[in-house]
Amino acid sequence: MLRAFVLAAFGGLALAGTYVALNPPQVERLALPPAAPVARRFEWLVPVSLVVLVFTVFVVAQLTAMFGGHSYVRRTTGLTYADYVHQGFAQLTVVTLLTLAVVATAVRKAPRGTASDRLLLRVALGVLCGLTLLVVASALYRLHVYEQAYGFTRLRLLASFFEGWLGLVVVLVLGAGVRLRGAWVPRAVVLTGAAALLAMAALNPDAYIAQRNVDRYQQTGKADWGYLSGLSADAVPVLSGLPSDVPLCVSAPSTGDWLEWNLGRSRAAHLMRVPPRPGCPQ
Q1: Does 17 reside within a domain?
Q2: Among residues 184, 180, 46, 185, which one has the least CA distance to residue 113?
Q3: 198 and 210, same structural domain?
Q4: Total number of domains in the chain
Q5: What is the DSSP string of 111-167?
Q6: Is the Cβ–Cβ distance between 15 and 23 less than 8 Å?
């Protein structure tokens, strides 16, 4: 039943992709009509400057919290590491969305008739994007602090890739601002998002997570063995090399028939031919 569902789902996706490739949709009809620039600079500069001012005040006021790390969490009453990283993620999401909205509106409304108009637009939006990148750096740093305290997990790895990708989107917008040409940005955003997913898959997430947690255990003596034991067969080559006194039982995965063959399970099954650790089920 499951195989039939997978065949139907992926077959349908393949057919849909083939149809779109042969009959490209006329997406140009969805493009917004050209916007008439405002007559005077202050009509766009004042709103953008207010947003930049708000961002600047926020960054200055939150600078200690943004990069305070372990010491900030420990001395702040009622603040947990989870709260610390969640605040950073929420700030990153809101600030990035607001920045993109302001940039999209400003480039449609700001006049570009003179060199000074173009320079002013680049400076104002460049400062806005620079402040946003500070928030991106803070979110990544908070997540790093969280991983130092509690170890690496799949969700934390995915969050780090997502936060890094949002930062890359802001960098792409900055690049578009150099020549004030941004028609290529949406496609670049999609391609970089796909590349980030491929990079995370190529990283072999479970093996990477296991290795980072093993490194953390060697440095601090702390590890979440329950979580590590639930990782896939890709983590077995890393976990099987732990000392025998580690309270972790790595079970040999089932290889199944040839239709279920998997490189990670095959490697893990080969490694698990060695005798199990004392206290682990035979």
Answers
A1: no
A2: 180
A3: no
A4: 2
A5: --SSHHHHHHHHHHHHHHHHHHHHHHHHHHHHHHHHHHHH---HHHHHHHHHHHHHH
A6: no
Residue 29's identity, in one-letter code, is: R
Question: Do 195 and 57 belong together in one domain?
Answer: yes
- Regarding whether 167 and 143 lie in a shared domain, the answer is yes
Distance in angstroms (rounded) separating the CA atoms of residues 65 and 76? 10
Question: In this structure, which amino acid lies at residue 21?
Answer: A
Distance CA 275, CA 252 (A): 11
In the chain the first and final C-alpha atoms are separated, in Å, by 33
Closest CA to 238 of 201, 271, 270, 211: 211
* 49 and 118 part of one domain: yes
The tens-digit pLDDT sequence of the chain (282 residues) is 666 776 787 788 778 778 777 777 665 565 556 666 776 888 888 999 999 999 999 999 999 999 999 999 999 988 999 999 999 999 999 999 999 999 999 988 888 888 898 999 999 999 999 999 999 999 999 999 999 999 999 999 999 999 999 999 999 999 999 888 888 898 899 899 999 999 998 898 988 998 999 888 888 888 888 888 778 777 777 777 777 667 666 555 555 555 555 655 666 555 554 445 555 544
Scan for tokens 């979110």, then name that residue: 139
pTM reported for the whole predicted model: 0.80
Give me the helix-helix angle, 154-179 and 185-202, nearest 10°: 150
Same domain, 160 and 45: yes
Angle between helices 115-150 and 42-66 (to 10 degrees): 20
Domain range for 113: 38-203
Using CB atoms within 10 Å of the CB of residue 144, give its burial: 0 to 12 exposed, 13 to 18 middle, 19+ buried. middle
- Nearest C-alpha neighbor of 205 from the set 216, 218, 193, 196: 196
- Please state the separation of Cα 255 from the chain's center in Å: 33
